[in-house]
Structures are given as C-alpha cells and as structure tokens.
Specification:
There is one protein chain. The protein is an alpha/beta fold. The chain folds into three domains: about 260 residues, Metallo-dependent phosphatases (Purple Acid Phosphatase, chain A, domain 2); about 70 residues; about 40 residues. It is built from eleven helices and 19 strands. It has a six-stranded mixed beta sheet with strand order 6-5-4-1-15-16. It has a six-stranded mixed beta sheet with strand order 7-8-9-12-14-13, covered by helices on one side. Strand 13 and strand 14 form a beta hairpin. Helix 1 packs parallel to helix 2, helix 5 runs parallel beside helix 6 and helix 10 crosses helix 11. The radius of gyration is 23 Å and the shape is globular. Keywords: DNA recombination, DNA replication, Endonuclease, Exonuclease, Hydrolase, Nuclease. Belongs to the SbcD family.
C-alpha cells in the first residue's frame, strides 16, 4: 500500500507579514497532482492543518477545496489535529466526511479505533492520534502522569491492544503529533513543554509498522519506520536550509517500509546573510540572494543610517533585519526576540526571577511552582481553544 505522508500545513499562516495562501494553494495543487500521478492509496496528514484555532475564512475555504479535490480522486485521507488546531472545530462534520473517504481523527478517546483499508496483501489499520495535551487527556486515556510520554504511551497501549485482536498479518500505521526524542526543532514550532518535558522516546511507537509524525518542521528520519514529513513550506528563517518535501511510503506485504522524498514547490528561496551593511551591499557573492526572501543580520558597531531602505535596493524581498554588533556597547541593542530565541517558557521565567532579585536564582521549590503555573496557563489556553 502506498501512502503520501505530509503534515504541518499551517493554512492561514503568513511569513513576516507576507501572506502564504498563494504558496499554500500551490502546495495543495502539487499534493493532489502527486496523489493522482503516483497512484497513492491514502493520504496521511499528521496535524497542524491550520495555523491557529480560529483560522481566517480564506484558509478554511482552501482546506474545504482541498478535501473536495481529494475526495473526488477516490483516495482516502486520514488527518489528525495538531497543537495549533482546535480539535473540536476541525472535527465538525467528521461523520459525514467519513462517507466521502475523509477521516478526521480529533478525539483522543478514539485512539484505538483505526481506519481500515485493504490492498492485495490484506488489511492495513491506520490509527490517528491527535495532539494530546497532557492535562486535558490524562483521565480520558488513563495515563499515570500528566506529561507527554505518559499520555502518548497510554494512547499507544490502546493501539497495540486493538491491533492484537486483529487477524494475523494486519499491517499498522500510526499518525501522531508530538516531539519525539532525536528530532531537530525549528524556530517556528510552538513550544509544547509540559512538566518540563516536551519529548517522548521513539520506543513509544514499538509494535507498529510505520509512524507518520507531525509537529517538527524539518523532514526527518528517526528510524526507517518513524519519520517526520516536515512542513511543506518554510515558516521561519531557521528553515532556510530545509529541503521541503513529503514522504511517499510503500508498505510491503510483510510491513517493510520503502520511503521516497517528494519535493514541494517553494514560492521563493530563503537566505540568511550577515555582516557589515556596506559589505552586504557590495559583496558579489551575495548576488544569488537578490531574488530571495532575506533575513539580514548587521554586525556594524553602530547602527547604520536607513539600513532597511538601503538593503531593499539590492535585496527587494528583505523581510527581517537583525542587529548583532560584533563588538562595542551596541551589542546591548540585540532585540528582545533575539535574546529569547530557543529558550523555553520555564527558562525565561527563571531568568526573570533571577533578574528581579539581583542575580539570586529560583530554588528547587520555586522552579516547581513556576512549572506548575506555566502548565496551568497552557492547559487553560488549550481548554479555551477547544471550547
């Protein structure tokens, strides 16, 4: 059986205030064409269909059009909600859509109920595990703790229990939206840290033939059977070196996986350039970036006059300007966002405590209190999104 594994569409997202809807439409045209031309048996979408819980109307219309086009091909689609999606909103109408071959899996309680497909070699069970917010689903899944490893482990126990009751030779695929240990993150993924632990071990997926993962935006192979497709478009300059693609996965009669990357269309290349302004304006080696979306980091000791206007004359698609002086007092002008880049909510909160107390860091008890407060806010946000 042949699958097209994709994820993290983030419909409705912009890139530094540039609308990506035309690029997202081009990707969906590419996806439908790949499904048709490569004789795909099922499409797997591993979460973050939308960029936010209440997406703009244009994004909803694009999603609706894509579903109609996939249904018209007669190719089943299995789709789960991600941490950016509102599970309840995305799941509206799922019963009716199922009749058209569109299977929206947004209910954690249904983790152990697969979509069943057949090919010449027998049945394939596809299990959809939506994003599992630990505090929200712990009781539903009977997990021993409210953390990612515990709730995803409890969900996979349901998968394995159901699979054990199926006929011998039934092949299995799991869709999940999580941060699995060994994966490499980008700047554009929303932090899902809960209880200080965001990642789950790859061993949680033991017992299934293929795990189609979403959440991390870089295409990655953790093992031959556990892969991230990554996002089809770049959503931050940290993804400038990514090769955006989907996985075309063939599942043999014995469950052996063969995977091929299918490149996605790119609206415009990304470039990160760095140096003093005058060098960036004069360096002939940078000519190849003149039609790219550009993030420019200026290392001048003092801020140059009208840097964005001057950069735009050579690089008209400059979207981000960062100041990072090589030396001197101007270093303190580094942007707040730049100083926080790559730091978790817990680390930022602990740094704040140390700052307001003249360097005295939070003790163990205070760190536990901070973590609890952050988890409560995250759970409240998740509850508001599904309300």
């Amino acid at each position: 059986m042949r699958f097209l594994h994709t994820s993290d569409w983030h419909l409705g997202r912009s890139f530094h205030r540039v609308s990506l809807l035309p690029a997202q439409r081009a990707f969906l045209d590419h996806l439908v064409g790949t499904v048709r031309d490569r004789e795909v048996d099922a499409v797997l979408v591993a979460g973050d269909v939308y960029d936010r819980a209440v997406p703009p109307l244009a994004a909803v219309e694009l999603f609706d059009e894509a579903l109609h086009r996939l249904a018209a091909l007669g190719v089943p689609t299995v789709m789960i909600s991600g941490n950016h999606d509102s599970a309840r909103r995305l799941g509206v109408g799922s019963g009716l859509m199922r009749q058209a071959g569109i299977h929206l899996r947004t209910d954690p309680a249904a983790c152990g109920t697969p979509v069943l497909l057949d090919d010449a070699h027998g049945p394939v069970a596809l299990y959809g595990l939506p994003y599992l917010e630990p505090a929200m689903v712990r009781d539903t899944l009977g997990a021993p703790r409210a953390d990612h490893a515990a709730v995803l482990g409890a969900a996979m126990d349901r998968v394995r229990d159901d699979l054990a009751a199926r006929p011998d030779g039934t092949r299995s695929v799991v869709l999940a939206h999580a941060f699995v240990t060994g994966g490499t993150a980008s700047d554009s993924e929303r932090d899902i840290t809960v209880g200080g632990v965001a990642s789950v071990p790859a061993a949680v997926f033991d017992g299934v033939d293929y795990a189609a993962l979403g959440h991390l935006h870089g295409c990655q192979t953790l093992t031959e059977r556990i892969r991230y497709s990554g996002s089809p478009l770049a959503y931050s300059f940290s993804e400038a070196a990514h090769r955006k693609s989907s996985w075309l996965v063939d599942l043999d009669a014995d469950g052996t996986v063969h995977a091929e990357r299918v490149d996605c269309p790119a609206p415009r290349p990304l470039a990160r350039i760095r140096g003093p302004l005058e060098r960036l304006l004069d360096d002939p080696e940078l000519a190849r970036h003149e039609d790219s979306w550009v993030e420019a980091t200026l290392t001048d000791g003092s801020r140059p006059h009208e840097p964005m206007a001057r950069l735009a004359k050579r690089f008209p698609h400059t979207l981000s300007l960062v100041f990072d002086p090589d030396e001197g007092p101007a270093r303190s002008a580094a942007s707040y966002a730049q100083r926080l880049r790559g730091r978790s909510d817990q680390e930022i909160a602990e740094d704040f405590v140390a700052h307001v107390r003249s360097g005295r860091a939070a003790d163990d008890a205070e760190r536990v209190e901070l973590r609890s407060a952050i988890d409560e806010v995250r759970a409240a946000d998740a509850a508001a999104e599904v309300a």
